Amino acid sequence: MNKAISLRYFLTFLFVISFVFNGFGQAEKAETEIRQIMKQLEVVGVSVAVVKKGEIIYTHSFGLKNIEQNTPLQDKDIFRIASISKSFSATSIMQLIEAGKLSLDDDMSKLVGFKIRNPKFPETVITLKMAMSHRSSLNDSEGYLNLDAINPDKNPNWAKCYSDYEPGTGYKYCNLNYNLIGTIIEKQSGERFDNYVKHHILKPLNLNAGYCVDSLDNNLFTTLYEYDGKTKQFTAAPTAYAPRREEIKNYVMGYSTPIFSPTGGMKISATDLAKYMTMHMYYGNYKGKKIISKKNSKIMQTKLSDEEGYGLAIRTIDDLIPGIVMKGHTGSAYGLYSAMFFQPEDKFGFVVITNGCNPTYTNGMNNVLKQTIAVLYNNFIK
């Protein structure tokens, strides 16, 4: 071997060693900073994942999966991720649109099977797009855990489910919108909601996730903890993973759908959520698997107004990382806080999920999520 080739191999070796050690240094620094955040904000546990150029370049889990058993949190552990779940429902709708079964301009009344009209604006059609973008004028004042709340034949106070503005002219975040959307998925696909998502999104992406508790290994469920500000104590949320077996026995397709909570019931690990996020980052494709078209993926990510930045279950924000526009969603329920945000042009993104913390906020964002994402960006992307 001549000297030139030997020198080239030696320089390559030095580059690889330098890259590896720098990577370890970045991870060590990030982990030290995240532990400081956890101590400051009284975090029970947190799982994170970083994606760059289509690859998961870092995952780690900190703290406890279960306080009472002193069980450490691991990357494979599953969380009920709350409202990030809405994007799975919206993605399913986009698939059905591509199959020619739906249009974003369809009348919700015709799709659901009973009247969905704001009584203050009875001539204004409430469309599927309005519901998916929270511009339907619906609200959650009568509840959203079953469709009886808005069904005129079931609830004498159904009219209270509608706000005072004309559908399509204002924004109000509403969980009921997405439980109705889950119903539409069942009616148009012929599959139970949880099975549709499993067969058309989760299995193609090879994700260990789901809406039905009994379809998953409950040993992987991360206990969620609600924080009491007065006592400064954490209490396990007993119903976060309720199996709802009796309700499922009496299931009515196209009506019982809220049992699975299309609006917030997805259970998934941070690592697998990062793979799903990468699919949206690449406009509907993940490692050769096409989930939705590029056109419809971009529609999901397009904000309908600057004020709220909401598209179709994907929000646009510009204050998470200074000077960078990000796309994604957050979730909060039972003491859990979750975030999934990505940059589709520069191809990087973050997933952060905590199972309990002392919740404080900056500009409407939970500080555990916001500060942890800043640490991940500064150490792995910037």
Structural class by helix and strand composition: alpha+beta
The number of distinct helices, counting runs of at least 4 residues, comes to 10
User: Major sheet: order of its strands?
Assistant: 3-2-1-13-12-11-10
Uncertain residue ranges: 14-21
CATH topology of the largest domain: Beta-lactamase
C-alpha end-to-end distance: 40 Å
CATH superfamily placement of the largest domain:
DD-peptidase/beta-lactamase superfamily
Encode the helix/strand succession as letters. Answer: HEEEEHHHHHEEHEHEEHEEEEEEH
Helix content: 25-40%
Keywords: Hydrolase
GO molecular function: hydrolase activity
Organism: Pedobacter planticolens
Domain Beta-lactamase-related: 33-359
How would you explain this protein's 3D organization?
The chain is an alpha+beta fold and 382 residues long. It folds into two domains: 38-83 and 208-381, Beta-lactamase, CATH 3.40.710.10; 96-186, no CATH class. 34% of the residues lie in helices and 20% in strands. It contains ten helices and 15 strands. The protein has helices spanning 3-40, 85-98, 108-112, 128-132, 175-189, 193-205, 245-249, 270-281, 294-301, 367-381, and strands at 45-52, 55-66, 71-72, 79-80, 225-228, 233-236, 267-268, 285-286, 289-290, 315-321, 324-333, 336-343, 348-356, 361-362, 365-366. The longest helix has 38 residues, at 3-40. The two termini are 40 Å apart.
